[in-house]
Every structure is written in structure tokens, then in C-alpha cells.
Amino acid sequence: MTLTQIQHSMTINIISNLWLIKLFLPKMLELNDGHIVNIASILGFLPMRDFTDYCTAKAGSIHTLNQLRMDHMRTKVKFTAVCPSIVNTKIMAGTCFDSSVVMSAESLVTKAIRGIRENKEVIIVPSMFRVVKIIQDFAPSYLIRSLIAAYLDANAEGTSNFVGQRMSEKIQ
Asked: Which of the residues in the chain have pLDDT under 50?
């Protein structure tokens, strides 16, 4: 991965979030009301081989909200990180994953809105990943790496054709 590609990934996945937060948070604090929502990823919690920049940025997105939650705990401004696994969108074209980890954009939005209305700090979808996250929090790191590696090896074709959004493509 080139430095330009890393910078692009960080700009898309973390810097843009920070810019938007900087733009809207002051008014929310002035009104003592509002809700900041970041679309992060389950990969902000779990490592995945060959996705270092993405996992790093998504972990940063999650931690940013943890920090803001602490900084503004005496206000009524809320902060939610939405952490999906794989969402069936154009960016995932060409990949092949087990259907139990893939969700539609509509399903993600429905679950995210429900979680936001319930003032959840973190929304992990699909729900099976909540269990994975709990196991990760308590299991030795070598065990988690082994389980993830075994899953990826069994589903090696999943990311083999992943191209992602090209820097030259415009999002419509």
C-alpha cells in the first residue's frame, strides 16, 4: 500500500469524521442537545489480515467517540458508534462472504436508528459479533488471532477480489 493510499483511507475513514464533528459539535454543546453518530466497523475492534489502515481508522473512529463521550459527559449530547460487519454495497462488489455476516444497507439503517433512539453508545451488527466482541475482551489475544485466521482461511475467497472504492471514482 502506498503512502497516498494510506492517506486516502485515513481521510475517508477518520479525518472526515473529525471535520464533521468539529463543524457540528460546538452548536450541539451550545444547545446542550444533539447526537453524533459515526459509521465505524466491527473491524475497529477485530483485526483482519491485510486491512491495517482500515482497521486502524475504524478503531480511531470508535475511540474518538469514547473520548468525546468522556469530555462531554456532563452534557446531553450523545455519541454513538455504529459497527457493522459487511454491508452489501457497491464497494463490496466482487467479494464473497458467508451470508451470516453480510447485511443489506436497509437492515443496517433500521438497526442503527433503533440503537440511536435507545441512546446506545455502540451498535454492533449483526448481533453475532457482539458475542465475538465479548469473547475478544476476555480471551487471550493469541486465541482471537487464531480464530480470525481460521475463519479467514476457510473463507479465503472473501476478500481476494476486493477492490474497494477507487480514489478516482466519485461517490454518487
From this structure: 158, 166-168, 171-172
